[in-house]
Amino acid sequence: MTKVLHEKFRGQTKEQLLKLYYDMLLIRRLEEKSGQLYGMGKIAGFCHLYIGQEAVVTGVQTFVKEGDSIITGYRDHGHMLACGMDAKGVLAELMGRMDGLSKGKGGSMHMFSREKGFYGGHGIVGAQASLGAGLALAHQYANDGGMVFAYFGDGAANQGQVYEAYNMASLWKLPVLYIIENNQYSMGTAVNRHSCTKNFYTRGQGFNIPGALVNGMDLFDVQAATEKAVNHIRSGMGPYILEFETYRYKGHSMSDPGKYRTKDEVESYRLNNDPLSNCERDLLDHKICTEDDLKAIEKEVKDLLKEAIDFCDASPEPGEHELYTDVLIEG
Amino acid sequence: MPIMTVREALRDAMAEEMRQDSKVFVMGEEVAQYQGAYKVTQGLLEEFGPSRVVDTPITEYGFAGVGVGAAFKGLKPIVEFMTFNFSMQAIDHIINSAAKTLYMSGGQMTCPIVFRGPNGVASRVGAQHSQCFASWYSHCPGIKVVAPYSAADAKGLLKSAIRDPNPVVFLENELMYGRSFDVPDEKDFIVPIGKAAVLKEGSDATVVAFSLPVGKALEAADALQQEGVSVEVIDLRTIRPLDIETILTSVRKTNRLVTVEEGWPQSGVGAEIAAQVMEQAFDFLDAPVERVTGKDVPLPYAGNLERLAIPQVDDIMNAIRKVTYR
Predict the structure, then answer these.
(1) Is residue B256 part of a domain?
(2) Out of A102, A135, A329, closest to residue B69 by CB
(3) A171 Cβ partners below 8 Å, 6+ apart?
(4) Roughly how many angstroms between the first and final C-alpha of chain A, as a whole number?
(5) How far is CA A277 from the centre of its chain?
(6) What interface predicted TM-score (ipTM) does this complex get?
(7) Of all residues in chain A, what percent carry a pLDDT higher than 70?
(8) pLDDT band at residue B207 under the 50/70/90 scheme
(9) How confident is the model at residue A2 (pLDDT cuts 50, 70, 90)?
């Protein structure tokens, strides 16, 4: 395996780079499929799609080591895939089936994997900031060398508990990276209408938490910034904040009328600053791979999702006895 | 049998569990250097050090979330609220994060955590520091709610709560901390969660209470004994899961029921017990169930009004007279 020399690729091999592209594409296609399944009535309730933000989680997750912990909010399908959780289990959960990651009892916003270190999937905006600090406390308590990747959005960045968590995380030097995915809208309210200041990465200053603003539409910018932040945290220096400027193409959830922004705005991101297109261009321009390589990945993702959906269609709804299981651990 | 205060019993329960299991730690406001706002954690910092006895800033929402996150990862936090009034800031994490996640994860994510601290009415501290949260927390599936009266139960139930793999809300009472009781000297004394105790047997009426009002119920029962009324007193000890069988067994014998709590009447613990007894023992009741509760007002400061607002021995005696038609 030859390492690619251009500095933006940080010495990653062709295989590693194509795997990143695969991860982003899988998120994009699974989310598109989720949107379709929602339209067909196979997915219900709240369903928040991650399309447009794929470079953030894919780039950040490059630096997760075995034993680390990941936690996020309700726009979580991409994070689960990036943690290596099974697409079949994710889709089956979205469809409310027994083979879903939560046996159909959690839904879009509530999936978990102890094995992959993924601690949800939380529907209360900002909860993951405190919970993430708690996971970090557990890493510190066990002295296991692990750290926490806690993701939240620009909307959550105004929640009071985020700052309570910042205070404790910095006071106790907890190993936690706070990743703010600023997709420009808190549901339907633009950043300039919900925040007295922008630049959420500077809001750790009062707590002595360093931060950085990063282009979240460029996978390799995401990686470069994350590497620096993760080195800081793993060296025992406490928390770090990364704010990624990104953009969500779809509505806040499936019921979003989209009246708060123009179609032109969305199209301009799609055409000029799409994270997948940006990655393709980088890989092709630097002759890391060919169009055929990318087409093969596209086919691989397509086949995987077709198999996953067939699997979900065949999966039963949870048995009625499941209504009363998992409320408490008995005995 | 040695005599100890509720305060010492709670401290010993935590210390014993912390000695046995290195995953158990305590966190909250003033739990370490100050030795506990009510001195319940006295001596723990000296024995276990600052990584296991953690002073937090005054940020209940945040530190409750930190505790829950640590519990998701396998630690067994004891989160102390200086009083349960302040847990209203944290109730989101107690219910949404701690109580619901096992279910939402299809049984994957456990949350072995204890939220403990004084609950209910103290003395002359006004409305924001004087509320009973038993009915609030016992409304919710996914958690257990415990409210001991005696020091022995405080110790045995807190040890059970710490060992329980589920989230437990452990409601103490400030006025009980200094009261002394016999506590068994057994090495591993445990009281199981979910079992009420019949503290006094009787045949004419049943009184069900929990926490501090149990003492008032016993006083009322003793006083009525002089009048020839035989009262059975049940200490609930656990509010959720509710030991309805012990209540039903008693009601089938006495045919009369009085419930006592400091909380407000609407949707209260007494309301729930009355409903379940109506559903399951309607034909055994010879009188409507009487509820003795806190009055339906925020707790007043003035001494005379405070006395009027919370259940007194006389109120319990009057309720017993009413259900026994005396």
Answers:
(1) yes
(2) A135
(3) B57
(4) 53
(5) 19
(6) 0.96
(7) 98
(8) very high
(9) low
Q: State how far the Cα of A119 lies from the Cα of B105, in Å rounded to an integer.
A: 10
Q: Torsion angle, CA of A163/A167/A170/A174, rounded to 10 degrees?
A: -80
Instruction: Flag if A168 and B59 touch (Cβ within 8 Å).
Output: yes
Q: How many domains in chain B?
A: 2
**Same domain, residue pair B54 and B119:** yes
Question: For an interface test with A, which of B54, B103, B113 has the most A Cβ atoms less than 10 Å from its Cβ?
Answer: B103
Instruction: Write the DSSP assignment of A190-232 as a string of letters.
Output: EHHHH-SS--GGGGGGGGT--EEEEETT-HHHHHHHHHHHHHH
Choose among B118, B139, B138: nearest CA to B129.
B118
Could you tell me which CATH number the domain at A7-314 has?
Answer: 3.40.50.970
CB contact under 8 A, A328 and B142: yes
The overall pTM is greater than 0.80:
yes
Q: Which tens digit of pLDDT belongs to each residue from B147-173?
A: 999 999 999 999 999 999 999 999 999
Q: How far is B238 from chain A (nearest CA, A)?
A: 15
Q: B173 lies in which domain range?
A: 3-182
Token pair of B210, please? 């929990």
Mean pLDDT of chain A: 96
B269-325 tens-digit pLDDT: 999 999 999 999 999 999 999 999 999 999 999 999 999 999 999 999 999 999 999
Could you tell me if B103 and B157 lie in one domain? yes
pLDDT at B1: 86
Which burial class, exposed, middle or buried, applies to B194 when counting CB atoms under 10 A from its CB (0-12, 13-18, 19+)? middle
Cα angle A212, A217, A221 (rounded to 5 degrees) comes to: 50
Contact between A54 and A31 under an 8 Å Cβ cutoff? The reply is no
Overall average pLDDT of the B186-207 stretch: 97
Q: Are residue B16 and residue B99 in the same domain, yes or no?
A: yes
Q: Is the pLDDT of residue B187 over 90?
A: no
For A188, phi and psi rounded to 5 degrees?
A: -110, 10
Residue B192 within any structural domain of the chain = no
B111 with B237, same domain?
no
Whether residue B36 is found in the same domain as residue B148: yes
Domain annotation covers residue B188: no
Q: Which chain A residues are within 8 Å of B101, Cβ to Cβ?
A: 110, 112, 120
We report the CATH number of the domain holding residue B33 as 3.40.50.970
Backbone angles phi, psi at B125, to 5 degrees: -110, 5
* pLDDT value at residue A1: 59
Do B310 and B217 lie in a common domain?
yes
Q: Write the single-letter amino acid at B173.
A: N
